[in-house]
Every structure is written in structure tokens, then in C-alpha cells.
Specification:
Helices cover 35% and strands 18% of the residues. The protein is α/β, with parallel strands linked by helices. The longest helix is centred in the last third of the chain and has 12 residues. The radius of gyration is 15 Å and the shape is globular. It holds the Pfam family Rhodanese.
Length: 119
């Protein structure tokens, strides 16, 4: 029996996310904790939703649902290094979100030309 691996789909890069956000085609989400955002700032225009709150805020049935999180939207997630944003992307896909991208960490956003605002 033969098994063929499907080529991995190319995700959105941080540079593509910077451009897509400027054009209004993606919502950027910072998954870091409050203290991290307070000490380093966050991507301009990004929603701040700590990973620990993502499930509730992405669930339209939950009282804490964030109205900007809709399954049909393109979402670009980042954290400090990319590990939590990978977890967040998996979680959102399990919840029915399809256009979800891990763009790495805040430093990736900055190197791609994204603006960071101080908290």
C-alpha cells in the first residue's frame, strides 16, 4: 500500500499579515498574557485575547464572546515565540474556524514592518 503525503498548505507569513491587516483582510490576535502586553506593547490594531480565554471568546454561545471573532473571518495569531499561537490556531480550527494562521511572535510582526503600540 502506498501513502502520499499531502503537501503542506502555505500559511500566512507575518509580512503577509501586516499587509492584509492594513487592507482590512485579516484580524490579528495577540495571545500573550496581560503582563507581556503591558511590558512590550502589541501589534497596532490587534485584538488582545490571552490563549487561556480564546475558547470562550471565540464561542458565539458564550457570554464573553468577542463579536469580531467569526468563523468566516481570516485570523492571524501571534504570541511571544509562536508556540501559543500554534495552540490557538489548532483550537480555533477545532471550533470551525478555517482561515487561521500562526504568524509567530511579536518580533516576527516587527521584522515584517508591523507597527507595535506601547500599552
Amino acid at each position: 500500500m502506498f501513502f502520499f503525503r499531502q503537501a503542506p498548505t502555505k500559511g500566512m507569513t507575518a509580512q503577509e499579515a501586516v499587509t492584509a491587516q492594513r487592507d482590512g483582510r485579516v484580524t490579528v490576535i495577540d495571545l500573550r498574557e496581560h503582563g507581556e502586553v503591558a511590558s512590550t506593547g502589541k501589534a497596532a490594531g490587534a485584538l488582545h485575547i490571552p490563549l487561556s480565554r480564546l475558547r470562550d471568546m471565540a464561542d458565539s454561545r458564550h457570554p464573553d464572546h468577542h463579536p469580531e471573532l467569526k468563523p468566516e473571518m481570516a485570523l492571524a495569531l501571534y504570541c511571544a515565540s509562536g508556540a501559543r499561537s500554534a495552540q490557538g490556531a489548532r483550537l480555533l480550527r477545532q471550533m470551525g474556524f478555517e482561515d487561521v494562521h500562526n504568524i509567530g511572535g511579536l518580533a516576527h510582526w516587527q521584522r515584517a514592518g508591523g507597527t507595535v503600540l506601547n500599552a
